[in-house]
Design brief:
The chain contains 15 helices and 24 strands. It is of the alpha/beta class and about 475 residues long. The structure holds nicotinamide-adenine-dinucleotide (NAD). Nicotinamide-adenine-dinucleotide (NAD) binds next to α7 and α8.
Length: about 475
């Protein structure tokens, strides 16, 4: 598929140009690759009106019909996998293989969501009365997505919201709007008009959505700081909120691991998608008995990994996605330099153009350092030496974040007993980041409110309704 350079929003099933436009940059070259529509307040009102108008008929359709629509969405994504993957690499920076995995993953998640069933509970069925509790759609959902996985994270929201009978207004990040806009265009003849509206814009558009009285729920994925603003703003009309926020996941490595076997897995747990994953391992607590050999094995493996333009053959890690995040990552590296932390690898920005930072690994910086306490969301990893498993668990849990965590051991049962002590929404043993459309995913503490995926995630797009019938 060839992509033309004019991208439009989807409002009421039609392609709509922005009142103005804003530039979108390829992070590997810093070249402007397209102009994206900048949605005006009036256009957002039109999108809300279209979604509200489409809601009664959409909710009235039998759920099995809506399932078929989800399968049609998934099919359209797979049919256009190649073009969408190329566009995603161009705007996001990730290598083609990762971009294909993301777009295909979105298709797979929508398919999986289509198999879920909304439960109904019979509370009483007696001679006098029948009482059931069912789950009804909420109305219009505002879905707001970040720049690290613009496509799959959008469909974590769109699939369940539509299946449950809601209509949607989706807003991608201004750093990565293009693939989402293109998908909107590809779905215009798949869904009834108004069921899925896609708008793009600058920093003002998110707040307009969260405060809009015509939107009934906000499903947000992004940083914890923004999540707090979303929750405050949503209070205006008591919107329901699902917040998938930041993380500072710990990986705990026991002394019985096979060093050479786990080193590549641990490396990718931290550096996949250039470390720009909410559930990347961002602190690695390694038992002292295995610290030195594992440190060397991770660094040796890291030296074999190719950083470069995601559209070039053989690239395994692309650039940091945008200039703001690039500066933040360099600032954290500078802080570690100023603090005298020992660098095992990396530490200096690569020559431009492009927001390239080399894989950077730190040797046992203090627990209170910024690189340990803060979410780095980039290619820097602190390796941390611990004297005991108890110490590792205590340090892992001493965080305001509670998204995910992992334990690595030759003995999965032993690792599980340790993993169960983690105060996080997901615990993985001997792997990380495995998500499915069938299992709920969400954060404890300041990593979020509510969940996505699985039946629990689906129910976040519903209101509970108890219906009581008195029998004659
Ligand atoms: P961000 O919070 O800056 O932006 C996320 C989205 O919110 C963007 O679309 C942005 O335009 C919009 N936005 C910004 N300000 C807003 C406001 N006041 N009101 C409403 N919307 C607003 O996050 P980001 O930098 O795009 O993404 C990185 C962060 O997202 C990291 O902290 C990462 O951990 C987190 N994240 C979490 C998950 C998860 O599932 N828990 C998944 C991916 C990323």
């Amino acid at each position: 598929m060839e992509f033309e350079r004019d991208f439009t929003m989807t409002i009421g099933g039609l392609g709509v140009a922005g009142a103005t436009t804003f530039p979108v940059v390829n992070p590997a070259t810093e070249a402007v690759i397209a102009q994206a529509p900048d949605c005006s307040r009036g256009q957002l009102d039109e999108a809300v009106a279209a979604a509200r108008a489409a809601f009664p008929a959409w909710r009235a359709r039998p759920v099995d019909e809506r399932r078929q629509y989800l399968h049609a969405i998934s099919a359209r994504l797979f049919e256009n996998l190649d073009g969408l993957k190329r566009l995603l690499t161009l705007e996001q920076g990730k290598p083609f293989g990762d971009a294909e995995f993301e777009v295909g993953g979105a298709g797979m998640f929508v398919q999986g969501t289509a198999t879920l069933t909304i439960p109904e509970t019979v509370n009483e069925d007696s001679a006098e009365r029948r009482s059931i509790t069912r789950h009804v759609p909420i109305g219009v959902v505002g879905a707001i997505s970040p720049w690290n996985f613009p496509v799959i994270l959008a469909f974590f929201k769109v699939g369940p919201a539509l299946l449950a009978g809601n209509t949607v207004i989706l807003k991608p990040s201004p750093f990565t709007p293009l693939t989402t806009l293109k998908i909107g265009e590809l779905l215009r003849d798949v869904l009834p008009p108004g069921v899925l509206n896609i708008v793009s814009g600058g920093d003002q558009l998110g707040p307009w959505i969260t405060e809009h009285p015509g939107i009934d729920k906000v499903s947000f994925t992004g940083s914890t700081a923004t999540g707090k603003r979303v929750m405050q703003s949503a209070a205006g009309n008591l919107k329901r909120v699902t917040l998938e926020l930041g993380g500072n996941d710990a990986a705990i490595v026991l002394p019985d691991v096979d060093v050479n076997k786990v080193a590549p897995d641990l490396f990718w747990a931290a550096f996949r998608n250039n470390g720009q994953i909410c559930i990347a391992s961002k602190r690695m607590y390694i038992h002292k008995d295995v610290y030195e050999p594992l440190k060397e094995a991770i660094v040796d493996y890291a030296k074999t990994v190719k950083v470069g333009d995601g559209s070039e053959q053989g690239t395994q890690i692309g650039p940091v996605q945008n200039q703001q995040q690039y500066r933040r990552v360099l600032e954290l590296i500078e802080d570690s330099k100023q603090s005298g932390h020992k660098f095992l690898l990396g530490g200096d920005a690569l020559e431009g153009p492009g927001y390239f930072v080399p894989v950077t690994i730190l040797d046992n910086p203090p627990e209170e350092s910024r690189i340990v306490r803060e979410e780095q969301f980039g290619p820097i990893l602190p390796l941390l030496k611990v004297d005991s498993v108890e110490e590792a668990v205590a340090r892992a849990n001493a965080s305001d974040y509670g998204l995910g965590g992992s334990v690595w051991s030759a003995d999965p049962d032993k690792a599980l007993a340790i993993g169960e002590q983690l105060e996080t929404g997901t615990v993985w043993i001997n792997e990380t980041q495995h998500l499915t459309p069938l299992a709920p995913f969400g954060g404890h503490k300041q990593s979020g409110v509510g969940t996505e995926n699985g039946v629990d995630g689906l129910l976040e797009y519903t209101n509970v309704q108890t219906v009581v019938v008195r029998k004659a």
